[in-house]
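Friendly challenge for the regulars: who can give me the structure tokens for this chain first? No prize, just bragging rights.
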Amino acid sequence: VQLQASGGGLVQAGGSLRLSCAASGASFTVSPYPVGWFRQAPGKAREFVAAITWNGARIQLRDSVKGRFTISRDNGQNTVYLQMNSLKPEDTAVYYCAAVEAPGFLWGPETAYEFWGRGTLVTVSS
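First reply, four minutes later:
Bragging rights claimed.
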């Protein structure tokens, strides 16, 4: 499975971006692939941001993004989205999407995910 994250860019504080994670080499309508979003700010460790089950029934969000970010998916398009609103400078990071073939999985540490995209840079100016 190959993942491609896109949608990053430069935005002012308070603005919005929608990131996309497009999968190829597998079908989200055939196999169960939960997806997670992680981010890594300069000089910091990569951290969990959001996750969604293979069917979109459950989501998990990092506390600091609750009420501002949401995660969704369109399995027919093999794509998972991260809608980011009310962005803050501290949201600046490279955002990565990751997936694993596991029907009952929601979220976990980085090591739980098998497939990773290259990342897309989000820069929030103050």
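The CA atoms of residues 91 and 124 lie 7 Å apart. The longest strand covers residues 17-24. Your move, everyone else.
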